[in-house]
Amino acid sequence: MHEWSLASGVVLTLKKIVDEKKAKGIREVRLVVGELSQIDKDILRDAIITLSEEELGNKVNVVIEEEKARLKCNTCGYEFGFTEAFEQLKRIFCPDLKPGEECENPVHYVPELVSTYIRCPRCGSPDIEIVAGRGIWIKSVVLELEEGEKQ
Ligand SMILES: [Zn+2]
Q: How far is ligand 1, taken at its centre, from the CA of residue 129, in Å?
């Protein structure tokens, strides 16, 4: 249960913010989740709501945004998205793919592997780095203050 351990990390951070700001609680938390992070956003949201009720005494409103993956060639500096990379993977792993068929490949299960399989679409270099779209972080929070005002 990857999502639950992430959720507990998020709620611990929220608790720390409440203590530091001497707020009554957290009204809303906005998270960014990378396209490659393989996190089930619904499970994560439910887990944060459940844990925040236990730890903070109220159900926090959870907003989750997705960050699209970006890949970068370290040789020529060309940046491209996961869709472009996936087209290349299809040609490597599923050259005979019929329209409408799913391409089964290792990246489907472990998206972080994408940089080890593909080459730069512009210069052909294998030196590819993932520059966006992995991990998860807190973008902003809305605090519950004494008079119930927003911040
Ligand atoms: Zn390149």
A: 11
Binned at pLDDT 50, 70 and 90, residue 52 comes out as very high
Residues with CB under 5 A from ligand 1 (ion): 73, 75-76, 78, 120, 122-123, 125
Provide the domain count of the chain: 2
Give residue 116 CA to ligand 1 midpoint distance, Å: 14
pLDDT confidence bin for 139, thresholds 50/70/90: very high
Q: Determine whether 7 is exposed, middle or buried from the number of CB atoms within 10 Å of its CB (0-12, 13-18, 19+).
A: buried
- The answer to whether the pTM exceeds 0.90 is no
Residue 19 has pLDDT above 90, yes or no: yes
Tokens (6 digits) for 119: 């080459």
Q: Are residues 17 and 51 in the same domain?
A: yes
